[in-house]
Design goal:
The complex is a heterodimer. Chain A is an alpha/beta fold. Chain A has one domain: 3-Layer(aba) Sandwich (Rossmann fold), CATH 3.40.50. Chain A has twelve helices and eight strands. In chain A, the strands form two sheets. A six-stranded parallel sheet of chain A has the order 2-1-3-4-8-7, sandwiched between helices. Chain A starts with about 25 loop residues before the first helix and ends in a 9-residue tail after the last helix. In chain A, about 55% of the residues are buried. By secondary structure, chain B is α/β, with parallel strands linked by helices. Chain B has two domains: about 190 residues, Thiamin diphosphate (ThDP)-binding fold, Pyr/PP domains (Rossmann fold); about 130 residues, Rossmann fold (3-Layer(aba) Sandwich), CATH 3.40.50. Chain B contains twelve helices and 14 strands. In chain B, strands 3-2-4-5-7-6-12 form a seven-stranded mixed sheet, with helices on both faces. A five-stranded mixed sheet of chain B has the order 9-11-10-13-14, sandwiched between helices. The chains are: A alpha/beta, B alpha/beta. At the A-B interface, helix 5 and helix 6 of A face helix 3 and helix 5 of B.
C-alpha cells in the first residue's frame, strides 16, 4: 500500500522498470489479447505519424506511441452501459474499446465514413456502440462531463461507471478540482485516469507543479487513489479492475495515476528531442520501458509466445492498418450540406 | 392569472412531474430567495435528488449536466445570475454547442442552461448583465428569451424536451407580469416557435425580446395617444435568429426600431437592423433604422447613474417619435 500521495519515486526514474513484466498468473489467452491490442495501437499510430509527416494527414494528431498500456488496462473492465471520455491524445482509448482502424483512419482524413463522420478529426473521436462517448482537446473539458455521466449512472442505478482520461497537465485546470470535489460530495461512480507522462506539451512537470504525483489532489478531495506503472499492462489492468469494481459497488470516485511517457512530441510525428527540459535525456531510457516489449519478453520467457509469433503479430497489424488506410483514402468526404445540416437537430437558419 | 415567476415554476413542475429523465441542478435551489418565486419548494415537492443544490462550482456543474445530457437525462442547469455563469461558459460554448456538429450530427444534447438577468437595485457591474448577444453568436446553441408568462413556461418545457442545447434567459423585471395561461402543449418544440406580432400596427416596426418587448408593448399604447400605430414583434428566440417577421413588417411600415436591454456593439439590435436591411431595397425605408440599447458601459451602482443607464417605456416612445420626425 503506497501512502505517499506527493512523489512518484522510482516510477519517474527512466533508469528503473526496464525488466520484463510479472505476468501474475494471467491466462495466456488474456495476455495475447492485450499484446495484440497494444501492437494494433502502435501500428496505427506509426502509420498516422508517417502520413502526418508527409502532410497527407493535416489535422493535429497527438500520438500515443509509448503509452498504449493504460487504455488497454482500462478497456479490459469496461462493459455495456459504461461511458468513457477521452481528451486530445485518445486514439488508444478509442481503439482499445473496440473502435476500428478504418473508423479512426477515415476520421483523421476527414472522411464521411469516419467515427465522427469526418466532422471531428483526430481530436474529436466518438464510438458510443463501444462505450466511447467522446474526446475533445480543450484541456480538462471532459473531466466534468464524465462526472455528470457518472451522476446519470448513479440515477440509473444499474451499476454503470464513467471514465475520464486526462493528462498531468489537466490537473492544473480548476475544473479538475471542482469535479473531484463534486464527485466526492455526491459519491459518484467515476474513475479519473491520469496518464502522467511527465510532460504537458514541452514543459516537464517539475516546471509546472511543486510535486510530481497528482495523487495528492485525490487525497485532498477525499477521492480514493491508485498509482501504477503505466507501462505495465498487467499491473494497469489489475489496478483498473479494482478501481472500477469499487466504483460500481458504490465506493465513490477513484483516481488512477498511470505513470508513463510519450515517445513523440506533444503533437505531430517528430520525437521533439530538442524541445523541453529533460526530454532529450529521458527518451532513450524510457524506450527501454516499452510496454509492448516488456509484455512480449515476459510471454516469450515463460514460453507463452515465440519471437516468430510476436513478429507475425506486427506483420498482421501493419497489413490491417494498410488495408484500412487504402479504404479510407478512397472514401468520400462529407457532403457540402453537412456544414449547416449538422449544426442543429433539424433546423438551419431561416 | 399567473405571473411570470410562477409560470416558470409551473414549467419546472410540469417537467419534473411528467418526465422522469428531467432534473434541475445549480446553486441556491434549496434557498427561498436565490431564484425569486420561480422555483419555490420544488425540492420539497420532487425531492432533492432531482432538485440538486451544488458546491460553488459553475464550470463543473454545467459540465456535469452536459455529461448527464449525453447519458439519457434532460438536465436544466440554474445560474441565478448570468454574470456568474461566465465561470461555466466553456462547457456550453466549447462543448455543448459543438458536440452535435463535431461528432457527425447524430449526438443529441438535451441540455438547458437557465440563467437569470437580475439588474437594477444598485447591484452594479457584476450582478446586472444580460449578455444574450454573446450566446446568440454561437452556432449550435439555441437562445430563448421569453417576454410573457406563457412563453416563460412553455418555452422552458419545449427547450427541455428538445434535442439541442438551449440557453434560456429570463429577466426578473418580468416576474410580476400576469396573464391567463392555457394548458401546456406537450408537443411544442422550439423548432416550431416563430417570432410573434404582439401588437399590429402600420407606421413603425419595433423589434425586441424579453423585457424589452414588454417596454415596446407599453410604448405602443403611449404612441396611440400621439396618433402613431406601432407594430411590435417579439423575437422569442434569438438564435437561430428568424428576422422574416421583422422584414415583412418593415416592408409595410418602412420604419424600424430595434430595442434591446444589452449593449450596442456587436449586439442583437444591430444584428436585427442588418438582417432586415440586407433583405429590403433602400427604397423600402422611409427613415434610417434606429436602435435603442444600454449605453456601452458596465452597469453602475450609484442611483443617478443607474437611472441614466436603464431605459424605460418613455425612452422607447420618444425614440419612435424622433424616428417619425415628430420630436
Amino acid at each position: 500500500m503506497n501512502t505517499d500521495a506527493y512523489h512518484l519515486g522510482r516510477l519517474a526514474d527512466p533508469a528503473q522498470c526496464h525488466e520484463p513484466l510479472d505476468l501474475a498468473g494471467t491466462p495466456s489467452a488474456q495476455l495475447l489479447t492485450w499484446l495484440r491490442k497494444l501492437v494494433e495501437i502502435r501500428c496505427a499510430e506509426e502509420k498516422i505519424g508517417d502520413e502526418f509527416g508527409k502532410a497527407v494527414i493535416k489535422c493535429p494528431c497527438h500520438l500515443v506511441i509509448g503509452q498504449e498500456a493504460p487504455a488497454v488496462g482500462i478497456a479490459a473492465h469496461i462493459r455495456l452501459g459504461d461511458r468513457v471520455f477521452g481528451a486530445h491524445r485518445s486514439h488508444a482509448h478509442f481503439l482499445a474499446l473496440g473502435g476500428t482502424l478504418h473508423h479512426l483512419l477515415a476520421e483523421v482524413l476527414g472522411k464521411d465514413t469516419g467515427c465522427s463522420r469526418g466532422m471531428g478529426g483526430s481530436m474529436h473521436l466518438l464510438d458510443r456502440a463501444n462505450n466511447f462517448f467522446g474526446s475533445v482537446p480543450i484541456v480538462g473539458a471532459t473531466i466534468p462531463i464524465a462526472t455528470g455521466a457518472a451522476l446519470a449512472a448513479q440515477m440509473d442505478g444499474a451499476g454503470g461507471v464513467a471514465v475520464s482520461y486526462l493528462g498531468d497537465g489537466a490537473t492544473e485546470e480548476g475544473v479538475f478540482h471542482e469535479s473531484l470535489n463534486f464527485a466526492s460530495v455526491f459519491k459518484l461512480p467515476v474513475i479519473y485516469v491520469v496518464e502522467n507522462n511527465l510532460f504537458s506539451s514541452h514543459l516537464h512537470i517539475s516546471l509546472r507543479q511543486p510535486f510530481d504525483s497528482t495523487c495528492r489532489f485525490a487525497a485532498a478531495h477525499g477521492v480514493a487513489w491508485h498509482r501504477v506503472d503505466g507501462n505495465d499492462t498487467i499491473a494497469m489492468a489489475r489496478v483498473a479492475g479494482n478501481a472500477i469494481a469499487a466504483a460500481r459497488a458504490g465506493a465513490g470516485p477513484q483516481l488512477i495515476e498511470a505513470v508513463t511517457y510519450r515517445w513523440r512530441g506533444h503533437v505531430g510525428h517528430r520525437e521533439d528531442n530538442d524541445v523541453g527540459v529533460q526530454r532529450k535525456e529521458g527518451l532513450s531510457e524510457w524506450k527501454k520501458r516499452d510496454p509492448i516489449a516488456r509484455l512480449a519478453q515476459a510471454m516469450i520467457a515463460s514460453g507463452q509466445l515465440t519471437e516468430a509469433q510476436f513478429a507475425a503479430i506486427g506483420t498482421e497489424f501493419r497489413a490491417a492498418v494498410d488495408a484500412a488506410w487504402q479504404k479510407a483514402s478512397v472514401d468520400p468526404y462529407p457532403p457540402a450540406a453537412a456544414l449547416l445540416e449538422r449544426v442543429y437537430s433539424s433546423e438551419v437558419r431561416a | 392569472m399567473t405571473n411570470y415567476g410562477h409560470a416558470l415554476r409551473e414549467g419546472f413542475a410540469y417537467l419534473l412531474r411528467n418526465h422522469p429523465e428531467t432534473f434541475t441542478i445549480g446553486q441556491g435551489l434549496w434557498s427561498p430567495w436565490y431564484v425569486g418565486n420561480s422555483m419555490t419548494d420544488l425540492d420539497k415537492e420532487f425531492g432533492r435528488s432531482r432538485v440538486i443544490d451544488t458546491p460553488v462550482s459553475e464550470l463543473a456543474t454545467t459540465g456535469a449536466a452536459l455529461g448527464a445530457a449525453l447519458s439519457g437525462r434532460r438536465p436544466i442547469v440554474i445560474h441565478p445570475r448570468v454574470d456568474f455563469f461566465i465561470l461555466g461558459i466553456d462547457q456550453l460554448v466549447n462543448q455543448a454547442a459543438k458536440w452535435r456538429h463535431m461528432f457527425g450530427g447524430d449526438v443529441d444534447v438535451p441540455l438547458v442552461v437557465r440563467a437569470i438577468i437580475n439588474r437594477g437595485g444598485e447591484q452594479g457591474a457584476q450582478h446586472s448583465q444580460a449578455l444574450h448577444s454573446w450566446f446568440a453568436h454561437i452556432p449550435g446553441l439555441r437562445v430563448v428569451m421569453p417576454s410573457t408568462p406563457a412563453d416563460a413556461r412553455d418555452l422552458l418545457v419545449a427547450a427541455s424536451l428538445g434535442r439541442d442545447p438551449v440557453m434560456f434567459i429570463d429577466d426578473r423585471w418580468l416576474y410580476e407580469l400576469e396573464a391567463e395561461l392555457p394548458p401546456v402543449d406537450p408537443t411544442l418544440r422550439l423548432t416550431s416557435v416563430k417570432p410573434r406580432v404582439d401588437v399590429a400596427g402600420t407606421d413603425v416596426t419595433l423589434v425586441a425580446c424579453s423585457y424589452s418587448t414588454h417596454l415596446c408593448r407599453q410604448a405602443a399604447e403611449q404612441l396611440k395617444e400621439h396618433g402613431v400605430s406601432a407594430e411590435v414583434i417579439d423575437l422569442r428566440i434569438i438564435n437561430p435568429l428568424d428576422c422574416s417577421a421583422a422584414v415583412e413588417s418593415v416592408r409595410k411600415t418602412g420604419r424600424l426600431l430595434a430595442v434591446d436591454g444589452d449593449w450596442s456593439t456587436c449586439g442583437l439590435a444591430g444584428e436585427v437592423i442588418a438582417s432586415v436591411a440586407e433583405r429590403l431595397p433602400p427604397s423600402a425605408f422611409k427613415a434610417a433604422p434606429r436602435r435603442l440599447t444600454l449605453p456601452d458601459a458596465p452597469a453602475p451602482t450609484s442611483k443617478p447613474l443607474e437611472k441614466a443607464y436603464y431605459f424605460h417605456t418613455t425612452e422607447v416612445t420618444s425614440t419612435v417619435l424622433q424616428l417619425l420626425g415628430k420630436k
